[in-house]
Fold this protein.
Amino acid sequence: MVKALRRIVPVIAAILVLGLTASIASADGPGWKTISQDFHGLLFGLNVGQNGQLLVADSGAGPTKLDPDSGETSLLASLPNVTDVIQVGRREYMALTGGGDPQGPTDARLWRIKDGVVTEIADLGKFEADHDPDGAGVDSNPYHLAKLSRNKILVADAGGNDILIVDKDGNIDWVAVLPPENLAVPGGECPAQPPDSCSDAVATGVAVGPDGAIYAGELKGVPATPGTSRVWRIEPDARHVTCGSDDESCTLVETPPFTSIVDMTFGQDGTAYVVELDEASWLAAEGGKGAGGTVNACKLHNGGGDDEGDRRHDNGDVAFSCKEIGTGLPFPLAAAAADHSVYVTLALGPEGPVEVAVLTNGNEGDNGGEDNGDGNGDHGGNANGDNEGRGNDNQERGGRQDD
Ligand SMILES: [Ca+2]
Ligand SMILES: [Ca+2]
């Protein structure tokens, strides 16, 4: 049961079938504006490509390019079960497929797409079967991608509870395991003991911050307690780290209480965007008691650790101060930021439509700083302005389910 529930793709599919009691047929909700509904399955990944294009992981068809101005879409390649896609060169992309049960021939792999031709780069499911980094059994469900460097791609494996690294030749290693956390289970129904523990981290988000570090967000498995999703900061050269241990190359980021994180990304100005699937938790949403999801825009600050003047936070003490820039969103699954706009994928009902929308509230002014487009390494951890005095607008509007 726990094993099944930590597989985020089936989880989200189940939520959509069971939990969406009211189908929201009309587009353009309060706070977002539809760009396109020309898709065929849940949209697990969204990223910014070259030339102002968006890249959408359409799990029903394959990686798809979307022009945010015209709403025009074009399929880059047929690759159903795709969970994420990023651009790595001119007409060259990396795409990820999620895990199946049982594993199919195109499941749990990293792919290169060049000029429309799909080539397998790495079999992540086999890596999990061979290595099982978290020691909790073989379970791979690659969910999100990030580019660490020209030659290195990061993968958040939601089944493996870990962050993997793959080079362009397909060599795989594991960077960090996100730890389970023992949380109180209402009704005491937690079925398993460690290592197959309650509250698997479920690695859903991975992104490279303005300080060059790897940031990883967790969904949180059963009991999916609201406010318990965490963000970890991992040194980019770290390998085989167990987060939550004494190893200082992975540290907890100080954040507001997040619930059911499904994606995180950074804008060019260094703002972190954290997507919460549902403020009442994915489990509440699965039971039809969802409260809607949220996109948070977060500034990075020094959290009090030693900076030592070298622009690195070797003690990893980073804090996020966050503002909700879209809330009450119907099943937001992924976000991307470009040119002062924040885009999000939504699912408006169990039978669709699914869409890419642009958020229409609140982000103006937050992106007013430098926007030099390089996105890596120049900022240090604290150079993204300071919103003290503005207050922290992140309020857990979804509240807890008390029943
Ligand atoms: Ca495992
Ligand atoms: Ca929240």
